[in-house]
Amino acid sequence: MGSYYGEYRWPLLYVSLAAGIMLTIVPTGARLKRGRLGMVVLALSLLALAAQGIWMWWNARWDFVQQSTAVSGGVPWSMLPVENVPFPDMPGAAAKNEAWDRLTYICPALLLIWGVARWVSRKPALGIWICQTVFVTGALVAVLGLAMRWTNAEAAYWMSAEEHSQYNLFFATFRSPAIATVYMNIALALGLSLFLRALCGVLRDRRGLGFSMLYLVGVVVLFNGVMGAGSKAGMVMAGITLILWIVMNWRALWDVLKQSASLLPSGSPLERNLLFGAVALILILSGLSWAETTVVRWQDAMESDYQTLDARSAINTVQIKMMKDPDWGVLGFGPGSFHPLFPYYSHNAELKGIVVYAHNDHFQTLVEWGWVGFVLFVVLIAGACLVLLSHSYAAEKGGLSRRGRVMQRGMFIAILVSLIHACVDFPYQIESIAITLAVLLGVAWGGVGYGRRSSKKPKTEQEEEVVPA
């Protein structure tokens, strides 16, 4: 995982495309018994998005050519007209090469959503494995980033500090601490639910306590990673993640707390309380170990009178101006058009430097994909969240086990918090995070095929039948 560019990005894209194709064409070995309407809605939405993106690229009007000096009006590049536009009177992307750059990861992501949903709808246990993979990867990102912080590394291991000194706020494999915290907060939400799910299993089966403690260690590492990265938004999102997770799972947490004393040799509630207190103290102290980083980041923001927020607000104002342009239609300016077009609309905006990302993925999506594409993305994401919530609060006798519901809530929080963070940063413009979101959306949409628990089956069989992620 990480934020790569140039030749560094292609291995992830090739692997994602291959995985999407395999998950789509390889037989699952099971028929979809229910949820066919939901899968039809998903398929149509994905096809419509892919068709819109490919059409805008194919019918593009211009090519984006970067220059070393300003070309005209202070714009450091030129837009060269594309020869032989297939349908010049119909919508097309503003920059063909930038549209292709975006489609090289958006199309594999869309394919992954379908492939993962197809398999999870028939084999729900696959979703758990996916969540575990994201969690472990996030923990490894946190470990690498913290190691870099502790050793005062000057740059990420794959980047030259001398050539790219502007990227002094790297973290692990990410060039931006804010983007790193998006991924770690996704893993944190999943890790919390994996930990609680494991504890519920321990109370039921009286085994596996050591494995659940590994989840707890990973959660502590991720929390430290978010604090140590130095992103103000990331810290806030970590707090929101913890609050949402506690609120949504308070019943399960309370039941685990009441029954957990039975796991101790003495069965003493006092020893249990001391153990939980020690764990809470470790979490608090580990977080406070990064207090200096946290205080410095917020102090710098206050001393600068929150200039970064002012810049983001100015960018949003320019994007509204872009959407008022008559050339902006229901299909938008095309994928990847924000960066090359932005300077032509920002003459009067008090912004310095080149703006590559809007730092608001929702606005940028609307600018590039128009109302049609934006609504289709809403269908994909909101539909996944509705499926997760419907399973999260379904009655246990007619729906998922408690362990399954805990995981549904963890995925919902992971997706929701990343969406909130996307209001002030650009996580979905980074290939690794966009593909991670696609996989989680696929797991969520796969929930339309989950079965109902049958009272005629033994409890163990019921649990195995509906072990969803």
Write the H/E string, N to C: HHEEHHHHHHHHHHHHHH
Q: Count helical runs.
A: 16
What is the helical fraction, as a range of percent?
55-70%
Overall mean pLDDT stands at 84
Strand content: under 5%
Please tally the β strands and state the result.
Answer: 2
Distance between the termini: 21 Å
Q: What number of domains?
A: 1
Note the topology.
Layout (H helix, E strand, L loop, with lengths): L9 H16 L10 H23 L3 E5 L10 E5 L14 H25 L4 H26 L26 H29 L3 H21 L2 H17 L1 H10 L9 H20 L2 H13 L3 H17 L14 H8 L15 H32 L9 H20 L9 H15 L13 H7 L4
Keywords: Membrane, Transmembrane, Transmembrane helix
Protein name: O-antigen ligase-related domain-containing protein
Pfam family, one: Wzy_C
Characterise the protein shown here:
- The protein is mostly helical.
- The protein has one domain.
- It has 16 helices and two strands.
- It has helices at residues 10-25, 36-58, 96-120, 125-150, 177-205, 209-229, 232-248, 250-259, 269-288, 291-303, 307-323, 338-345, 361-392, 402-421, 431-445, 459-465; strands at residues 62-66, 77-81.
- A two-stranded antiparallel sheet has the order 1-2.
- The radius of gyration is 24 Å and the shape is globular.
- The two termini are 21 Å apart.
- Residues 452-469 have low confidence and may be disordered.
